[in-house]
Every structure is written in structure tokens, then in C-alpha cells.
Amino acid sequence: MNPPVEISFHADKLPANANPFADITLDVVFTDPDGATKKVPAFWAGGNQWKVRYASPVVGMHAYRSICSDPDDAGLHGVERSAEITAYTGDNPLYKHGPLQVSADKRHFEHADGTPFLWLADTWWKALSERLSWEGFRGLCVDRSTVSCFLRAEKRPPFRPLLFTILNSPFRYTMDPLRCPRKP
Description:
The chain is an alpha+beta fold.
């Protein structure tokens, strides 16, 4: 996997009462040197700025064209340029061995070159529910970083993935039986 490129776009006009996050969509269509295309959504980065991040296993110049929901904004719509994708030369295994995929036997994750990948993360099943307050969430985050660092005498927190569930589940309700839905 090669390192991603980040490209910025600047809106020429934004109405004073606009909500760019909700009102404007921006996609960027990339064409690699072999002619394959990929549409990548951009994200609003604040103010009049949008960004897109793109990574490809194909090294070389990649042409791109922007498509905006506001076709009259020349800063966001119809921008055509190119970006150079360069080969990765570092030691980071996430780049060195390629993107993740499901193995051929469908039993584990592996990198594109076949190197096994162990997915290790905490899963907070109830993190986005009424049962966990903002203060409780912040406390869990602090505990994960500061306590583990203290125990290992590290100077900065280690990076660890954190999985959230975003499902419509009974966990969204409090444990108060008067507020829980009852099955007929």
C-alpha cells in the first residue's frame, strides 16, 4: 500500500446561512495510470474547505475530477488535476504489507501480500447509549490512555483501536424498567 494523498478544495461561494456539512456533497473521481476509476467522497474541513484522502496500490500520476452538488461553485465542481502516488519506503506494516482483506478461507484478516493481521481492539457495546453519560465516556477514554501508560511507565499513550457499535439495540435504553420497551 502506498501512502495516501490529501487534496484540499475551496468553495468559491457559501451562502451566509448554509450548513456545508449537510447541504453540500463533494465526490472526487480518481483515474489511475491503468485507467481504473474510483469515486471517493470528500469531507467538509471547516469554513469553505473540503478535503479528500486517496490511496492506491498503483504508483504514478492519477488524474482526478471533482463532482459537487452545487455545479455553479467552480472551486468545488469540475476541478480537474492530477496527484502523484509514490511507493511506500518505511517500516509501518500497515503500508508495507498492503491493505487488509479477508483471507481466502474466510476465517481471518490478512494483508494484500498474505501476511496475517490480528485485529485486537476494545469493543464498547454500550458506548453510544443512554446508559453511558458523556462524563462516563470521557472517563473510559482517560482510563484507557493514562492508566495503561502509568502501569507501563510510558511517556505517551499507545495507539489502540476502539470499536463502537452503532446498532438499534435494547442497550439504547436505561435500566429503568419503566423506560424500557416491553415485548407483547
